[in-house]
Amino acid sequence: MKTILTNEQLQLTIQRLSHQLIENHFPFTDTVLVGLQPRGIFLADKIVSAIETLYPAIKLNYGKLDITFYRDDAHKQLHVANQTTIQFSIENKKVILIDDVLYTGRTIRAAMDALIDFGRPAKVELCVLVDRRFNRQLPIQPDYTGKAIDSILSQKVTVDWEKPEVILL
Amino acid sequence: MQLSTRHLLGIKDLTAQDIQLILDTATQFKEVLQRPIKKVPSLRDVTIVNLFYENSTRTRISFELAEKRLSADTINFTASGSSAAKGETLLDTVNNILSMKVDMVVMRHSASGAPHFLAKHIPAAIVNAGDGINEHPTQALLDAFSIREKLGTLEGKKIAILGDIMHSRVALSNIYLLKKMGAEVTVAGPPTLIPKYLQQAFNVNVSYNIEETLKWCDVANVLRIQLERQSQPLFSSLREYNLAYGISRKLLDSLNKEIVIMHPGPINRGVEIDSDVADSKQSIILQQVENGVAVRMAALYLLAGKRTEN
Question: How are strands ordered across the β-sheet holding B73-78?
Fold first, then answer.
């Protein structure tokens, strides 16, 4: 077991990601944030509250997207569906997808399919806490990365939001 | 998490966890149905035949829509206009359809147990869409979903099932489901339309007094009088049935409390329920129909997940 991000590093990383989003998207009039269910929500919640703490006047459009029904392995393994709440139009908006760990890229592929059923975004960007960069099975790359790591297939990256810290098993 | 069964033949075979899983999944599908594009690709690789040996409006359309919203390929079979009219047996018909690579069968039949028979003889997953006077599991699931949506939970709620209990597959499926989920159930209607030993067999209350039952309950599920299944007269006339057992506005107003009115359809207006009750704000009859699509999507989706396990 190896710690990738300690509690303190994690807080700094979330701050940095939030500032990068502010740098590119301020004042968020044409940008919406979408966290991926179930585990991307924790990071998305933290980023949203970090941005709103820095700029209390800003009203962020923040939604949650569940991709269960769009998975490509439904015939192999059933997953329990989670709630989707997108209470705004994404038509012609810049959408920032937020997830905790980017691994094979299949979740993001499904997320893009799901997203497009809600409208035609002007642009979709991807923000992740951990990028397992050598494990991709699809041509998908993040625009904002908390930390890029090298890991092998048998290893598992866990983000423990209770502590919080990121560990490699 | 997955279902404990490969087929959906009846609520009898489901566990409380199965029911919970179907209802929870249906909640997510109901959200899908509010989207601009009301369709997900989950069952793209699944072909489903809808086998209807008995008339149906709601159930058939609802299943077909649920299948299309899940991106499954569908075929529709109705007994009239098919080779069943030429004397082909049920098993032959189904085997012929399955040889064209069909994965799931949704079936309605006037013979109780027809889907159970089929489940023993064919490899496809079977969904019972109503068999004779036995069960109608998806109707009970959508009723439960609608009650849960309205009252928050099923546990401890007082549910009355009124009318023709004897011939109703909806009643039997509802009783199984509500008891498994911890609701209290009273069935009420004329003595000739309530089977003997119901109380002992299912631990439900039996009453012959509609007014008292309505005073007791939170929800009244009113059933249709199924004249087509009665081989001998079981009450003197429809008019008399309406006067003694029909749900009227006057009767509801006299209760001094607001109860939820449900009906699985088709409604015989002026027999078991009066128009001003069926169309009132208390009635959730059309919400039941709306929820039917989401509940059937959930059932099909979860069963399709079991399909390739063996």
Answer: B73-78, B47-52, B104-109, B125-131
Whether ipTM tops 0.85, in short, is no
Q: How many CA atoms lie within 13 A of B89 on its CB side?
A: 6
Q: What is the pTM of this model?
A: 0.90
Q: Pseudo-torsion of CA B209, B282, B226, B254, nearest 10°?
A: 30
Question: Strand pairing of A61-65 and A94-102?
Answer: unpaired
Distance between B98 CA and the closest CA of chain A, angstroms: 19
Residues 6+ apart with CB under 8 A from B91: B117, B118, B121, B122
At B76-109, the pLDDT tens digits run 988 877 777 788 888 998 899 889 889 999 999 9
Tell me the pLDDT tens digit for each residue of A120-129: 999 999 999 9
Q: Which residues of A touch B43 (CB under 8 A)?
A: 74
| Tokens coding B19 | 């029911």
Q: Does B4 touch chain A (CB under 8 A)?
A: no
Cβ contact A118–B35 (<8 Å): yes
Identify which of A163, A162, A155, A159 has the alpha carbon closest to the alpha carbon of residue A146. Answer: A159
